[in-house]
Design a protein that fits this description.
homodimer; alpha/beta; Isopropylmalate Dehydrogenase; 2 domains; eleven-stranded mixed beta sheet; 14 helices; 11 strands
């Protein structure tokens, strides 16, 4: 198994990407191809003990950064680490690709180089969301803002196949985000997609409200890209706000500060439960290849876990499972 | 000043509604008209010391409860506490109305009895959302799922007038919820509404992402009713999940449990910051009267605060401010 890594992608590349790659190669016994500026990557690699590890360097002279307009950059920068990485997947020289760079750029490069899976109307950006029962798959989280009901059905199919093959959840429960639990609640789009999901062979549980997502009511949460993006970013912001308020209150008196110090290990564990870096990478579903996207702020551990998620995606038969579901449903 | 209270509305009515009314009458020096089943309310009132307070009972034999279909119930139950309360406002016998009952029922009763403010296309359900800088006004949170750009502009106008007159915020910063900060990000609806808001005299700050809401970037957060509903309910669910994870981790060892016990006053204060009952009531904006809606789970304090919010809405000239803004803009 060989995973290609966008060694130039993310806020702290190439230091943390190279560190994460070394870590992943050792922990998972994988070959990790580092795609980017060779001389930079070689210098970073030299800082690590890589004896016995397979970490080939693949030259790519350009970088698609956070400021680039995704589609234009993916077209113009043919020698960027993202495009070169996609070419490795397309040519069969890599089983999957992981990037913590500009997620729009990853999407555009994947669409141009790999294309869509047969039958898929729109690929979806996906997130793994920590819940009271483990984690759920939320999609779309930003690739498609104006959606059609059929796309939402396909998001359900793809999310369900991913939850089954990469997360090991049997018959994942699929819900659609709405402003009420009852059938008939929601926008016209939600009501139309509800009917399609209900008629499909998916394990559809109906509408889920905002509060049901962290409660873990559904394994797969289907929504349009605007609402999904708000769900992910609001959760990030609210977690920061809540822990900030608690920490401020704890520091406000000597007694509560002492209590806070004693309780610190508990806080650390709680933060770990909610930490994106434990997950590391979320799949770009619907493109013809295994492509995982990580958070721009990824640290070495998140990069390592992202590479691991790409490995699971590639070995679990995610693409075949999506294709089979689509075929089952005559799509 | 006389505020009418739906004494039958909410999960714990009439006990907590009567208790909250007594509290409000004493704290704010207000007349609070208790609308509902007279004999029930008289029995509750008898449990309190009401010497010197003005708490008239207004008979209403019916109740619109949580299971009722709002529009049908508001039409059929003409002697319900909601409809009778609205009649008091319409007839000038009350300056404002507060209910912690079925919010759809309040909306329907308000539309039937009070109607819309001249020029307003759709009323909006509004929430006060605690942020790092105080609180912001979020609307719509569930009354309108399929919106038009012009409605979102009007939500901005109404939210801004409310933030100014009832919360005392000068030139409130108005943002629209989107999946990216930059102009041009968002659905077709968001992009159209962006242009209208930008051209308006409002203090429009552009797109806000999910994470910007708890950070307090905007004083008024404009969105469609589905997304707004998800924002409010997700925040409720995530707060519960996060504090649950922290509490579970704290209880998991003797040392962290001791720390947690010492830090408890800090947790209590933190929860207070995030507590809806501190706010008590959110306005139904766009109807021709001051109408505030509270959470079904409201306790006596939330009822008291909701009555206080109705008083501020009535005395601050909220309706006049909305009407003036609309006139300014030729709407």
């Amino acid at each position: 198994m060989r995973i290609a890594l966008d060694a130039m992608g993310g806020d702290h590349a190439p230091q943390v990407t190279v560190e994460g790659a070394v870590w992943a190669a050792r922990e998972y016994g994988l070959e990790v191809a580092l795609v980017g500026r060779e001389e930079l990557l070689a210098a970073e690699l030299a800082k690590h003990d890589t004896a016995g590890l397979s970490l080939p360097l693949i030259q790519a002279s350009e970088v698609i950064d956070m400021k680039d307009e995704p589609a234009a950059a993916a077209k113009a920068k043919q020698d960027s680490s993202m495009v070169v990485g996609m070419n490795l997947v397309k040519g069969g020289q890599a089983d999957g690709f992981f990037s913590a760079g500009n997620s729009g750029g990853v999407m555009a490069a994947a669409l141009f180089r790999l294309g869509r899976l047969p039958g898929i109307k729109r690929p979806a950006l996906t997130a793994l969301y920590p819940t009271a029962r483990g984690s759920c798959v939320v999609l779309d989280i930003g690739a498609n803002t104006d959606c059609k009901a059929e796309w939402l059905l396909q998001f359900g199919i793809m999310g369900s196949a991913y939850a089954e093959t990469a997360l090991g959840i049997q018959r994942p429960k699929v819900g659609i985000v709405s402003n009420g639990e009852e059938e008939g609640k929601g926008s016209t789009l939600v009501k139309e997609a509800y009917v399609l999901l209900k008629e499909s062979p998916l394990n559809f549980i109906g509408n889920v409200e905002g509060k049901d997502i962290p409660a873990g009511l559904a394994d797969v949460v289907v929504t349009d890209g605007l609402t999904g993006n708000v769900i992910i970013k609001l959760s990030e912001g609210l977690t920061k706000f809540l822990t900030g308020v608690i920490e401020k209150e704890i520091r406000s008196s000597a007694l509560t500060a002492l209590g806070g110090a004693l309780a610190r290990p508990a806080f650390k564990r709680a933060k770990k439960v909610l930490d994106y870096s434990e997950v590391g990478g979320a799949p770009l579903l619907g493109v013809n290849g295994v492509v995982l996207v990580g958070h721009g702020r990824s640290d070495a551990k998140a990069i390592k876990n992202g590479i691991g998620a790409a490995q699971r995606g590639a070995s679990g038969g995610m693409l075949a499972a999506i294709a089979a579901s689509l075929a089952d449903m005559g799509l």
